[in-house]
């Protein structure tokens, strides 16, 4: 007899699509938009697996996971949600669900999750969590992987190492994990590179939960003290470490902290999250300043999505804060965003000078030094300008201070062609 799937989904179109996909995969499906109906089926012993949307007509189905566990302790549960936050993934994991599928998802992934759950029915579901959303958001595949890693760590008391480039939000990930473990931020000891070795050792021995920030900046003495604290039976440690650290991390210390590893992706690997991040940050600034939220034009959003963001989320937040202060009461356009990005003009000029000197040093090793440097610089400028403008040559030419014909001619010369590429 084929397995019986109980489907709880209030979007009629999606309910039909999921029912057909599950039916085609050989499962029996019984679908409803009513949580009460689904719970009644479960109470009556129907179904082998529950596939449920999280938000149903304004209610959060995660609040019913405790009841599902009491009614059918061995029934695996898979939840689906468009609420792309760490809290949703964490609450789902703490509620004992087998899998959390962030919408939109691939139907093949859903079928695979159902098959896996039916082959590994999990018992002993845990009580639900009622933590507030963290603001740590994103629907990209890279960010959802980070959310799931946080959710897994939340159900354990293992030491955790959180890695990622500077500015990606490693501290926010640590705070989300603390909340998921039921620890208020003020109840955890936070240790930074400014603490002495004695303070590190003492606080880590005394506290139940400790956050070690920017471990790559710690001195050798501080790292030895941290390692001794772990060897002496320290409380649970959550450490943040930048990838490719400037200072080497003690191997034994890194090995002890790597019981669980969470990697927070750089912004360039999750560009699809930038519009949602912009909306969240601008809303935060509006509440901070008691103003209406600044809105962004489509061109402004496209520009932000395609900007390099070497400083990651921290840089995006700073730019948006400047933008919010400069454009109160109106829609922010492309020029406003460009000005906010270039607000630190003096520092930008210094950075350009450093990279120009490096380019010059490389070019001087060639017989055609000047032309090689000019070609390399223009090729990079044109490529990035076109990327920011989604391939629109007129807008890219405006961004570069050129006319469109001049840009087309130089592109042809750099590509070694005689005519403009359409």
Walk me through this protein's architecture.
Strand 4 (55-56) and strand 5 form a beta hairpin. With 422 residues, this protein is α/β, with parallel strands linked by helices. The longest helix has 20 residues, at 369-388. 50% of the residues lie in helices and 13% in strands. It is globular and about 80 Å long. The chain has helices at 12-24, 35-43, 65-71, 86-94, 107-118, 141-154, 170-180, 197-206, 220-231, 251-257, 274-289, 298-305, 312-326, 334-341, 345-363, 369-388, 393-400, 404-415, and strands at residues 4-8, 28-32, 49-53, 55-56, 59-60, 77-81, 99-102, 160-164, 189-191, 209-212, 236-242, 260-263, 295-296, 331-332. The strands form four sheets. Strands 2-1-3-6-7 form a five-stranded parallel β-sheet, with helices on both faces. The protein has a five-stranded parallel β-sheet with strand order 9-10-11-8-12, sandwiched between helices. Strands 4-5 form a two-stranded antiparallel ribbon. The chain starts with a strand and ends in a 7-residue tail after the last helix. The protein has four domains: 4-118, Response regulator (Rossmann fold); 156-265, Rossmann fold (3-Layer(aba) Sandwich); 268-343, Orthogonal Bundle (Helicase, Ruva Protein, domain 3); 346-415, Arc Repressor Mutant, subunit A. The chain is built from 18 helices and 14 strands.
